[in-house]
Amino acid sequence: MIELKNVCLSYGDKVILKNISLKVQDNTIKAILGPSGVGKSTILKLMLGLIKPDCGSVFIDGRDITHLKESELYEIRRKMGMVFQGNALFDSLTISQNIGFFLRENLKLPEKEVNRMVGEQIRFAGLEGYEDLLPESLSGGMRKRVAIGRAMVFNPRMILFDEPTAGLDPVSSKKILTLISSLRHNSNLGAVIVTHIIDDVFNVADCVAVLYQGEIIFDDVTEKLHDSRHPFIRSILSDKILEL
Q: Which domains does the chain have, with CATH numbers?
């Protein structure tokens, strides 16, 4: 489980997060919904221990990671995979090499074991036949699937997604959302999805936190979002995509 408790964060004079608290339970998909630039991706960085809050605490499986050393954070991060908005693939490596990079360079696993684990993710992501291609040869949706396979290859318990469907066409978006939804059913994984697209929330998320002006204004099961009377939430329910 991931928990943020009374977290505050500012960059200079700009307040990003105002005393926010939220939980992400195991084996659930939680969305963090809000307009661009409101601090959604910052929450992912806090969960990974890449930045530290000005006040409050971040807990991973009950352990406060707020003041851990980098060496201690390594084991914490092993529990989580990260799918970046821009995918962060290595342009000069093939699809298979990208997916297996962490296994080879960090875990130093035998090549036979790496190939087995990479093969599992190739099949899961529907990338058979593309293993030896470079990322530039793939569509945006397929590159996203490579990034998901790389995040899953070391068997994390939670995967964090930063705007997973941003910039994708409707068909590719649907495939990515189906893949994300299958994580819970096939692998008992939890997931956090940062997005500004409300349809993504209703398609895959069990619960959702809405971030607005640095505060969590809604945090409940997704179905109850329709019951909110908050003016901002009413507006996004009608607009579908946040462009603020």
A: 1-79+159-244 (3.40.50.300), 90-155 (no CATH)
